[in-house]
Amino acid sequence: RSTRRRHVLPNYIDNDSDSDSDDWRMKQVNRTRKLQTQAGKRKRIDRDLAKSEREASDTDDDGTDNKAPKGGNGGSAEELEELLDKEEKKKVHRGQTGMWAKQARELMKYRDEHGHCNVLQRDGSLGWWVDRQRQSYKKLNAGIKSQMTPERVKILTLMGFEWDASHMVGGKKNDEVWMEQLEKLKHYKEEHGDCLVPRKYASNPQLGKWVSYQRTQYRNMQLGKHTSLNEERVQQLEAIYFVWQPKRGRPRH
């Protein structure tokens, strides 16, 4: 009986191959975890933004509160002031405090004078700040580290801030807003017989401020200073007998 000798081949273990495989699997696990974390963060951001937009939806395009009684202070104005107070107390970069809220208040003043928040970059530092808020908002929506927060989104949204500026190239949006206010002034004239809207006009506070601002801009034009008025706008106002210098003590509606 012949005996066959079995040859056993040595089992070589490729340690490098197994190590590479483990590294690849670990990278995939870490990548999956990172994506899950980002997805969860994005959901929280979307939820907070949606809440901010819902709560701010009670404001008109001019920033006034739909639910507020005519001539009164709405809850949105009080809420906005409360949010700004909280923002002012926050510590920010380089040990400064409340810088963001300070700029936001400057934007509020601009809105009260112009009837909108669409400050262009060419209008100075406030315009640059407004542009940065839109850029930060885009980063926030993309899940990228940003100085924008849901609280700040809420503040600006309550002010009537427009996040999409793509339609404002060349100041077109400002022209549209100006024409809207002019139409409101025409309706006022039809009802009252003149364009003497009080500075604190209860039925439409924004219109009263806008009319006052036109007179200020007209004075600037007369003095050769920078102004948002031009000859075309002056002619449109004078066509409805706009009074540039109303007499003091004249009865108001």
From TrEMBL:
Query: Know the name of this protein?
Result: Helicase-associated domain-containing protein
Basic residues biased stretches: 28-44
* Pfam families linked: HA (PF03457)
Annotated PANTHER family: HELICASE-ASSOCIATED (PTHR33418), HELICASE-ASSOCIATED DOMAIN-CONTAINING PROTEIN (PTHR33418:SF1)
Question: Compositional bias (Basic and acidic residues) spans?
Answer: 45-57
Residue limits of the Helicase-associated domain? 100-161, 175-240
Q: Which residues cross the membrane?
A: none
Q: Where is this region: Disordered?
A: 1-81
Look up the coiled coil feature and give its residue ranges. none
